Amino acid sequence: MRKLIAYFTFCIGVIFVISPVILYQFIHGSYERYIWIINGSFPFNSFGSGPVQLYLYAGLFLAGLILTAISFKHVNKYLKYAVLIIILLMIFIMSVSCYSSESVNTQISKSLRIEMPADSTIEYEDSHGGFHGDGGTYAKIKLDGKGTEKAILEIKNSWKSLPLSENLSLIMYGGMRDNIEYIYNLADEFKIPHIENGYWLFIDRHSKSINNYDDTDLFNRHSFNFTLALYDADENVLYYIEFDT
Question: I need a surface site. Which of 2, 35, 105, 108 has the fewest CB within 10 A?
């Protein structure tokens, strides 16, 4: 009976060890599924946050290591060798992929449904954290290399031309409307210049959103969960923001 329990614990541990890769593929494997997940209730609406995903994957991986270690001496030696190889491979995959330029490029490409050029220069910051995953993700992407013309064409064909809508202008730059002062200034917070010639894309990720591409209800809620991308046609630079409160 004890050996059976040990084998069961060992198998659960192995599942936990490989679960981060499976979960990541499930969340990010399809853009439509990704939007559906992050528009769900808590905790699913936090799965768009990089730190939240990192803590989740690390927790599952650590739990798997603990379970396999507890039952390790009770299982067949060949199974031990196989699992050791899997664990080492998982450690290698997680260490080289976490927050790499390629993973950031892939994440932004899936979010915007545009294939970013692989040689693009990316400046990336992420302040998401805490229990609810509040914070902001910022990326400045200098489009360059093979695929740049295709990416720009996709932007021109599917995004809206500047200027921003009234709601987005207020949250980016602040201002007055109906005798109410809006003190938001995300452009200053993320050091984004005022762009006159270019395009923009808004994605509403709020759980109460009816239309993910409509900012009408942006100020009619108690929190913000949206993605905004701005393309500067003069400088050939794309600015990317994920803002969650």
Answer: 2
Beta bridge partners of 226: 204, 243
Model confidence at 227: pLDDT above 60: yes
CA distance 158 to 153: 9
What's the mean per-residue pLDDT of the chain?
80
The rounded distance, in Å, linking the Cα atoms of 59 and 136 is: 23
Q: Residues 6, 26: contact at Cβ < 8 Å?
A: no
CA angle 176, 163, 138 (to 5 degrees): 85
pTM of the model: 0.62
Contact 99, 50 (CB under 8 A): yes
Distance CA 70, CA 44 (A): 31
Number of H helices, E strands in the chain: 8, 8
